[in-house]
Amino acid sequence: MNKEKIIVALDVETAAEARRVIAELRDEVGAFKIGLQLYTAAGASFVRETTRAGAKIFLDLKFHDIPNTVAKASIEAARLGVWMFNIHALGGGEMMRKTVEDVRETCDKENLTQPKIIGVTVLTSANRETLQEVGIESETGGQVLKLARLTAKCGLDGVVASPLEIELIRATVEREDFLIVTPGIRSPKSQVPSPKSESDGRIGETSDDQKRVMSAKEAIAAGADFLVIGRPILQAGDRVSAVRKILEEIETA
C-alpha cells in the first residue's frame, strides 16, 4: 500500500506533541521518524514506549563514531524495537560491517526482530560547496554513489539519499532489495528553481534548509522506497488531509 511508503518525521519539541501526531496519523501512514531533537528531549524511553504501542519507528540518529561504539549503540537501537535506524556511511567500511554483523548476532541470540540498517550518504541540506568546505572534492551525485556502493558492499539494507540521486543509485547498485529512503520531499510550489544540478539537471531549493528536493510523485517515480516527510505534514492546518493529498499524488507516479 502506498501509505506504507510515507514516514512522518516527528520533528517536534516534546513527547506529548509527538504522541498527538502519532495518534492523529498512525492509520494514515506507514511509520514515524524520531530524530535528534525529539530523542534528546524525550530519550530512549519514549522510543521504547512508541514501539511497544505498535508504531513503526525509524530512529534517525545517524551514528558516526569508531566501529565498536557504533556497533554497540546499534545493538541498543535494536533492543528498543525500532523498525529501522541509520548510521553515517562516511564512518567507513569497518564501522558498517561490524555494525551489521554485531546487530545480526545479537538479534539472533536474543530473539529480536532485526531492524533495517541504512547508511546516510550526503544530507539534503548539503551541496557541492558544502562538500568542498570539508575537503570533499567530488560532486554531490558522485559522492552519494560512492557511499551507496560502499554501503551495499558492507551488507546494509539501503541508504538515505536525496531525491536527485535515486535514479543514479538504482542504475548503479544491482541489489534488488536495496532500499532508498528519501527526505527532501516538498510540494512543487515550495521549490525554487536553481540554475543547474550536479546530479541530473533538475534541482529545487526551498525557503528552509533543504537544497536537493523533489515532489513526492517525482521521488516515487524515480524509485524511492520510502519518503520521509516532516514540515509539509506537521505544519499543515489539517494533517490528515495533507497526508491524503500526498497519497493521491503518488498514486499517479
If you had to describe this structure to a student in words, what would you say it looks like?
The protein has a single domain (2-251), classed as TIM Barrel, CATH 3.20.20. The chain contains ten helices and ten strands. An eight-stranded parallel β-barrel has the order 1-2-3-4-5-6-7-10, surrounded by four helices. The protein has helices spanning 15-25, 36-52, 67-79, 93-110, 128-133, 140-153, 166-172, 216-222, 231-234, 239-251; strands spanning 6-9, 31-34, 57-63, 84-88, 116-120, 158-160, 179-182, 192-193, 204-205, 226-229. It is globular and about 45 Å long. Helix content is 43%, strand content 16%. By secondary structure, it is of the alpha/beta class.
How are the SSEs ordered, and which strands pair?
Blueprint: E1 6-9, H1 15-25, E2 31-34, H2 36-52, E3 57-63, H3 67-79, E4 84-88, H4 93-110, E5 116-120, H5 128-133, H6 140-153, E6 158-160, H7 166-172, E7 179-182, E8 192-193, E9 204-205, H8 216-222, E10 226-229, H9 231-234, H10 239-251
Parallel strand pairs: 1-2, 1-10, 2-3, 3-4, 4-5, 5-6, 6-7, 7-10
Antiparallel strand pairs: 8-9
Helix pairs in contact: 3-4, 8-10
